[in-house]
Amino acid sequence: MDDYVIEMLGITKVFPGIVANDGIDLRLRRGEVHALLGENGAGKSTLMSVLFGLYQPEAGIIKKNGKVVQIKNPNDATALNIGMVHQHFKLVDVFTVLDNIILGVEPVRNGFLYKKEARRKVLELSEKYGLRVDPDAKIEDISVGMQQRVEILKMLYRENEILIFDEPTAVLTPQEIKELMATMRSFTAEGKSILFITHKLAEIMEVADRCTVLRKGKHVGTVNVKETTKEELSRMMVGREVSFTVEKGRFRPGGVELDVRHLTVPSKLHKNNAVKDVSFQVRAGEIVCIAGIDGNGQTELTHALTGLDSQSQGTITLGGVDISKARIRERSRLGMSHIPEDRHKHGLVLSFTLMENLVLQRYWEPQFQNNGFINKNAVRAYSDKLIRQYDIRSGQGSDTIARSMSGGNQQKAIVAREIDKNPRLLVAIQPTRGLDVGAIEYIHKQLVAQRDAGRAVLLVSFELDEVMSLADRILVMYNGEIVGEFDPRKVTVEELGLYMAGAKRMDIRNIGKENKA
Amino acid sequence: MNIIADVLGSTIIFAVPLLLVALGGMFSERSGIVNIALEGIMIIGALVSCLFLKTANEAGRGASSPQLTVLLAILIAAASGMIFSLLLAFASIKLKADQTIGGTALNTLAPAFAIVLTWAVQGQGQTNIMLPTWVRISGISAESGFFARVFLKNSYLTTPVAALLLIVSIILLYKTRFGLRLRACGEHPHAADSVGVNVARMRYAGVMISGFLGGIGGLAFTLAAGSGFSSTVAGYGFLALAVMIFGNWKPLNILGASLFFALFKVVGNYASSLPFLPDFTGVKSSTYIYQMLPYIVTMIILIFTSKKSRAPKAEGIPYDKGQR
Question: Which of A318, A321, A516, B132 has the fewest CB atoms nearer than 10 Å to its CB?
Answer without folding.
Answer: A516
